[in-house]
Specification:
It is built from eight helices and twelve strands. The protein is an alpha+beta fold. Strands 3, 4, 5 and 6 form a four-stranded mixed beta sheet that branches. Strands 10-9-7-12 form a four-stranded mixed beta sheet, covered by helices on one side. A two-stranded antiparallel sheet has the order 1-2. Helix 1 packs across helix 4 (45-78). It is flat, with a radius of gyration of 29 Å. The model has no long low-confidence stretch (mean pLDDT 90).
């Protein structure tokens, strides 16, 4: 990890004072406890030279940290068989052309990259007792997740089965969004919001409804719905005095599940089905 500018300058000063030739030239005392500031002014040429060298050294160490992070990120994606490797390979999938077998590298690869043919934009990979569980989705016109068509999913599964490691049990899912019914109680400032939650200054804007939609939209793919995080987000909206969570339930397929604190979606993403808000003026 890169040192601070202060640490770098102090280390250069220590080496400067300990150098026997410089000690002789400057007539410095032969004392380990001597401080650079006691022998040189902050505006001296020597102090300014050390400052310049310190700035250069700091910049180089910061660049090395960035470079190391980039290398570690690339390695995590390149090491075959890791969860990140499976995620990256899923994102690389192209509808056409088919990947070709590379006999030298012993792996499938596409002859050329066509980003327009890369239909998988959202991926999560997790380990379960039954093997690896992969959830995928494409992107709709608004940039939100959307399940693959049946034909697309069949082709994608064939691709993943071709490139996956032997013996790995891989389950691939692509589903319609989980839906959520949410009830809230909002104590609000009537000088900012109307009784139905609209801004007094912008009657067509509903901060609470927008904040709920934004919270769900910004959740990472296969992220966890967190009641506390949602309430924290609502607290920041204009005119909100006290947002309270009343109840929530989510549906995946035909199954409804009550939500108390957290909810892990089955599809990897969630959309609002019914938002019931009781506004109470304070």
């Amino acid at each position: 990890m890169a040192r601070s500018k202060k640490e770098i300058v102090e280390s250069i000063q220590t080496v400067f004072l300990a150098n026997p030739i410089l000690k002789s030239i400057y007539g410095l005392p032969d004392n380990e406890n001597v401080a650079f500031k006691d022998e040189f002014s902050l505006v001296s040429l020597e102090a300014q030279w050390i400052e310049v060298v310190g700035n250069v050294a700091k910049a180089m160490e910061d660049l090395m940290d960035v470079h190391l992070e980039e290398i570690q990120e690339r390695l995590s994606k390149m090491v075959p068989g890791t969860l990140e490797w499976y995620r990256v390979k899923a994102l690389e999938y192209q509808e056409m052309p088919e990947p070709e077998w590379n006999a030298e590298r012993l792996q499938f690869a596409y002859p050329h990259i066509d980003e327009d043919a890369q239909i998988v934009h959202f991926v999560s990979v997790n380990e379960t007792d039954e093997g690896l569980l992969m959830k995928v989705a494409k992107e709709d016109a608004e940039g939100d997740p959307e399940k693959l068509s049946e034909i697309q999913l069949i082709a994608f599964k064939a691709y993943m089965n071709a490139i996956k490691y032997a013996g790995v049990q891989l389950t691939v899912l692509s589903r319609d969004a989980d839906i959520i019914n949410l009830k809230l109680k909002i104590y609000y400032n009537p000088m900012v919001l109307t009784e139905d939650g609209a801004l007094l200054t912008q009657p067509d804007k509903f901060p609470i409804e927008d904040a709920v939609a934004e919270y769900l939209k910004l959740m990472p793919f296969n992220g966890i719905f967190n009641v506390t995080d949602l309430i924290d987000a609502l607290q920041k909206e204009p005119g909100v005095i006290n947002p309270l969570f009343v109840s929530a339930k989510a549906q995946s397929g035909s199954v409804w599940v009550a939500i108390e604190d957290y909810y892990q979606s089955n599809a990897g993403y969630i959309v609002i089905n019914d938002l019931n808000i009781e506004y109470i003026a304070r």
